Amino acid sequence: MPWSNQNGSNNDNQNPWGKPGGGGGGNQTPPDLDEVIRRLQERFGSLFGGRGPRGGSGGPEISKGMITGFLAVIMLVWAVSGFYKVAADEEAVVLRFGQHVSTTGPGLNWHIPYPVETIEKLPVTRVQRLEIGFRHFADGVIRKRTNESLMLTKDENIVDISFIVQYKIKSAEDYLFHIDNPEKTVRDAAESAIREVIGRTLIDDVLTTKKAEVEVETEQLIQSILDSYSAGISLSTVKLQDVQPPERVIKEFKDVASAREDKERAKNEAQAYANEITPNARGEGKKMVLDAQAYAKEVVERAKGESSRFESLLAAYKQAPVVTRKRLYMESMQQVMSSVDKVIVDGAVAGHVLPYLPLDRQAAKAEVKK
Predict the structure, then answer these.
(1) Sequence-ordered list of residues with C-beta below 8 angstroms from that of 43, at least 6 positions apart, any chain
(2) Is the CB of residue 130 less than 8 Å from the CB of residue 187?
(3) Cα–Cα distance, 158 to 151 (Å, whole number)
(4) Alpha-carbon gap, residue 63 to 325, rounded angstroms
């Protein structure tokens, strides 16, 4: 709306500079600096009980130097308010009228004070923790969030999974400008990733042997989703906390798991027994083969020795039959008599000795063969 009254209903209207608005305002000019200072003097003078230079009262008069000094103090305070301190685990993003102009590190820094520039401090080295499927409250109470934890496996079974995501800020600018709600973004990406991974995994594998694989695949998938958003977030780890069937059927699943564990234990025991007895059997078989080979060699060598001995005896018998026969007789008797009990009786009393055969002792020494 123009400063003068366009309807012409009030001829006493004033323009913004305090002069009459006659003639349509075509000749209006702004006042100079002296006029503005004079008016400020009048206003401030009235605050201290006087009526200013026109009123002629005794109130204090504000000079141009006082106003200049007052403005200088205000400017100094405003400039000092631009100093700020960044902690060791933080980075500060400097915004000029909302646009990113620089990023500063730890220490004392300065920026053009508000409203020209503002500061956003972010904990770039701090590992932040996000709980999915449950919430851990300060009083130690843990509450489940079934809308986050229940999901469907590849074989169409429902599994209840709670896990933790830990992450850090790797780019303060991306973290501040590319995503609206960082925590909700990470939570939604984590839920989407874990559901996709569980959706292509069997429930038995999730509950038993493939937890580590699920963690790795989920971490990689979450990171790829966040990178596609240019979120400026780097994942540290994904850790499964609790993986179990739904509460209504947990008893049946535990029975199945116990039976599976019994099966695995029996299989392991059988394998251990097989691992123990197989080498022993192989060793025994090898020993029997070696014993048989040694016995065969011994028999052959003995036969060869007997044959050589017989040939040498034959040659000696041909040269001296009587002597050889007597020597053979003596050797045979020596061999026989050395292994039996002997009783020597003088011939003079032999007729008076009653022959006695100790059958009980002979029976004890006898070897019964069946």
Answers:
(1) 52
(2) yes
(3) 6
(4) 164
In the numeric block, the tokens 């709600």 are attached to 181
DSSP assigned state of 37: H
Q: Domain 128-244, what architecture?
A: 2-Layer Sandwich (3.30)
Candidates 218, 206, 83; CA nearest to 164 is 218
Say what the pLDDT of residue 244 is: 85
β-pairing, 117-122 vs 107-110, is unpaired
What is the four-CA torsion angle of 6, 9, 11, 16, rounded to 10 degrees?
-40
3-class SS letters over 252-298:
HHHHHHHHHHHHHHHHHHHHHHHHHHHHHHHHHHHHHHHHHHHHHHH
How far apart CA 115 and CA 138 sit, in angstroms, is 38
Please tell me the distance from the alpha carbon of residue 42 to that of residue 64, in angstroms, as a whole number: 12
Please tell me the distance from the alpha carbon of residue 117 to that of residue 99, in angstroms, as a whole number.
9
Rounded Cα–Cα distance for residues 178 and 165 (Å): 20
Distance between CA atoms of 315 and 64, rounded to whole angstroms?
Answer: 157
With beta carbons less than 8 A apart as the criterion, state whether 215 and 239 touch: yes
The continuous run of DSSP H or E covering 240 comes out as: strand 233-244
Q: pLDDT tens-digit profile of 249-284?
A: 878 877 877 888 899 899 999 999 988 898 889 989
Token representation of residue 300: 């052959």
CA distance 264 to 184: 42
**pLDDT tens sequence across 24-76:** 444 555 556 667 666 766 665 555 454 444 544 444 555 677 778 888 888 88
Four-residue CA torsion sign, 135, 138, 142, 144: negative
**If we measure between CA atoms, which residue out of 131, 134, 151, 135 comes closest to residue 246?**
151
Could you give the 3-state DSSP secondary structure of residue 294? helix
CB proximity list for 28: less than 8 A, separation 6 or greater: 3, 15, 17, 19, 21
Degrees to nearest 5, angle at CA 318 with 315 and 320: 110
Structure tokens at 304: 């060869």
What's the residue count for the chain?
370
Whole-angstrom distance, CA of residue 287 vs CA of residue 283: 6
- Nearest C-alpha neighbor of 129 from the set 163, 165, 161: 165
